[in-house]
Amino acid sequence: MPKAYSYQRFSTIEQQRGDSLRRQTDLAATYCKQHGLDLVESYADLGVSAFRGGNVAPETRLSAFLDDVRARPRKVPEGSYFLVESLDRLSRNKARHALRILESICDEGVTVVTLNDGKVYTAESLDDDPTALLMSLLIFVRANNESEEKSKRGRANWQQKRDTAITEPLTEKLPAWCRLIRSEGKKTRAGKGVPERIELIPERAAIVKQMFADYLAGVGQVTIAKRLNLAKVPCWGRAMMWHTSYISKILSSPSVMGVYVPHLLIGGKGGERIKQEPIHGYFPAVVSESDYNKVQSLRKIGCFAGQKSEVLNILSNLAKCPLCGSTMRRVRNGARARAKLICVKAKAGAGCMGYGVDYQQLEATFIAGVTSITVSVPSVTKQQRVIADLQTTINRHKQALTNIMQAIQSGQQTPDADIFGGGQAVPVTMLQAVQYLESKIDEEEKELSRLQQALALVRGDAVRERVKELRRFAAAADLDRAAINAVLLSLCSHVVVDYVHNNLILHLRAGATVEVAVNMADEAIQHRAMRLITGQLMADEVI
Fold this sequence. Notes:
The chain is of the alpha/beta class. The protein is built from 17 helices and 16 strands. Strand 11 and strand 12 form a beta hairpin.
């Protein structure tokens, strides 16, 4: 008894709720019974589009069958039957590519049967009967045209939705702090109210706002998550607790300032996702663009990565030794001992002969002196020019990407067409060009974002605003060391603890330096440090 293999496919999971799978399965079983065939295996791609060849991707069941047909020793015996409801179940790709699939199966001695019309295709019939070959080609042409038209309508519909996105929501997928408000009158086909607008969930928006306020005040992601868990604030979604990774995701999401970034899918399910222009004002904003950019700048610097405990040192991650340039840390040897700032290399005996300085004195005099500091900010014209040049490059690459996408969408080109039209030693397909440009634009936009965020920290108005914040925190009745540290981290790349001259030298990210007089070292230490710097003090004299 000849063996038979059936293939079922439909494009969307929604079709599984209908009659498609049962119909295709019953047709195969009935044909086998009527023609004395042994149905040994069924291959099914459920929710897989055949447009653009999606159902012959390596992970699909049709691809598995084609591998079995070509396998040696044979897994599918010569003389077997391959049963499909219609040729468009086999492929909706361009007719030339679709025909190759049919021919490749027939060339292995397998008979293809379309169950809706009872047509039989073999290598012999395709060779000897021009009508059979022509009809199969026309069926594939019609199937591809139908899918192409449906795809165009879908893209046009999506573009129309995008154009009206501010007043008519594009998608029901929303940030966890937003909800969709539906019309009570107008209904969708599913019986739901038509989406009208997106609004904030007040209690969740308040949590997001507090996350940003905490981070700007020097509280790390670990501590933010811990506070939410200790307060027993209900998690959003299926998680049982607040995780640092989720806090990070929220802090980095542009949706908090109302921005939505849509994507266009090229080539159906599993195809290339192309990032589109962001839509500003799509979501209700929770935080200002200014605060969002400040947080991104601090995250880029890595200010509070892994921070778990209370900030006790206003110069944490900033203080540098005046002798060797290494980090200085706050240490306290015993409960009654006074805290000191000391070079990590000196403490470890790793070559630096620097001194520890009294932290309490340093902090108190810095807080008193910082209220009167003035900052002169250099021009940022060079940075602005670099940003403008990069933006021009991005726009040029985006235009090239748009041209290729329009050629594919209009049917003028297929994703696997050579972009150079031949003549190249190594062909470059349209899809490869899309992937390259998308990757390049993504890299360039990340660099642009980094440069813009860096510029946001060094612009004159931004620096002056941060200096005002520093003065305000310093003048507060209750000293908030974490907040002062956060402001200093955004202002400074590092701070040299110059105990030789009793100064803190603030090296601003904007390029300038500011000196603040402090009281941290007595005259004996200053004298010995000066002798050490000038080479007058020997190593065995250092205490």
